## 1
Amino acid sequence: MGKTGHRRGTDRVREQARALADGGVDLFILETFRDLNEIGAAIDAVRRVSESSIVAQMTTEEDGNTLDGRRPSDSHRILERRGATLIGINCAVGPARCSRRSSGWRR
């Protein structure tokens, strides 16, 4: 999880997810992740404490792919297998590029 490290980052997400679940939330939103491994670890952390719905949103680079070079359709399948309920993108590169280049998110 970036400079934090995978284990520590996962522990922090799990701690926050547990507090939110204990507080009664029924939806988790994980957004603006640029790395598929990081958002996958965050999904895993949430799933360890809750079966509530998870919205998982990746952000793309100028070419429409994730930072690690994955196409949106590949990322979608991976996030779905990891346990995301809803999958989408948000626009780090701006809404015009997001809609034009990332149409692979649609089924």
Note: The CA atoms of residues 70 and 91 lie 16 Å apart.
## 2
Amino acid sequence: MAKIGFIGLGNMGLPMARNLLKAGYAVAGFDLSEYSRERLATDGGTAALAVAEACADADTVITMLPAGPQVHEVYLGDGGILATVAPGALLIDCSTIDVKTAREVAQAAEGKGLAMVDAPVSGGTAGAQSGSLTFMVGGPDEAFERAQPLLEKMGKTIVHAGGAGNGQAAKICNNMILGASMIVVSEAFLLAEKLGLDAQKLFDISSKSSGQCWSMTSYCPVPGPVPASPANRDYKAGFTAAMMLKDLNLAQAAARETRATTPLGAGAAAVYEQFVENGAGSNVDFSGIIRYLRGE
């Protein structure tokens, strides 16, 4: 039985690890949270007390961490993955981080003769739980081919985006589109409200017209038209406003580094920054931006 070390058992990592257990893999997981480690053990995994313990004899190590500094430390730090993983192991980083750090870590892994891909995800906690995530994968062809069977146990769509760091590039570009489109969809519904146009009527028209987009048809920010959207659960997070802000800021940092012109992306980042500063914490979905625009 192939052994997988899984580092980072949060809202995304734990259900991903569970899907690997269901697929028959042996999973040793580490997280700073004892509660998260115990939940993995309850589901049939092994609770590791350190990164090195999770990596011991692992054929593959998967990470799902909050940001670039954590990825850098977990991979390159003393007692980290590169220092303890078995020769020939495959490394898969599913965190969403800056492209520069992703490429730096991949280069360090290559220097030790290890195959690595960056494979950030789209689909939120619901996708993690159902195994329907989209993986955007950067790395060499051979590493991608090794990673794909594992990713297919956790996701439905797996796309090889190119070399190291290109998975991260795809993720931040995608979420810049998502963040900006959610704002303008929210603005349209608020304008319709002011004009006396029923939200359901606008949805029925725009969801079949040129205004159609994922932010409307799958994640509509007003209650009613899309029963599965967070708007019907008081904007309880599937993907938090704080995480959207993080991704928008990553996109803006990349835009500055490459001198790309992204005025709408910059505007979206500014709006989400105000939303988060006004109290949209770790429990508020990013589609709750409509509340901020409404003045609530």
Note: The two ends are 53 Å apart (CA to CA).
## 3
Amino acid sequence: MGSGTLANDVVAGQLSLLNGRGLILTNGEFGSRLVDQARRFKLEFDTLEFSWGQPLDLNVVREKLSGRSMHTWLWCAHCETSTGILSDLDALKTICKVHGVKLCLDCISTIGTLPVDLTGVYLASCSSGKGCAHIRG
């Protein structure tokens, strides 16, 4: 039970225990919130910002993670509800697996509302205030 902000604070806290640098993807308000939370937790990370309302450019993500990338984790919103963009979960899982990067997802707007397979995802957040809401009978 708790808010989405609390759930993502827990993810940030766990990421603070890892060595290495992260990559946060943002294409709307909730991605921007992840950046803010990562800053508050003093995480080492880079940001890939895409225009609000546009899908994540997965070719840019692949390029950023390729070569001599020092990124050990990637964090983004599965569904950017401020713009209605649903990211390609299978593609993100594949990209992270190929590059040996731990995938972390804000699934607050998708768990409980859409079929979500978290196989291969390191951390995922959800909360009781959205798709997994507690219904009193």
Note: The mean pLDDT is 91.
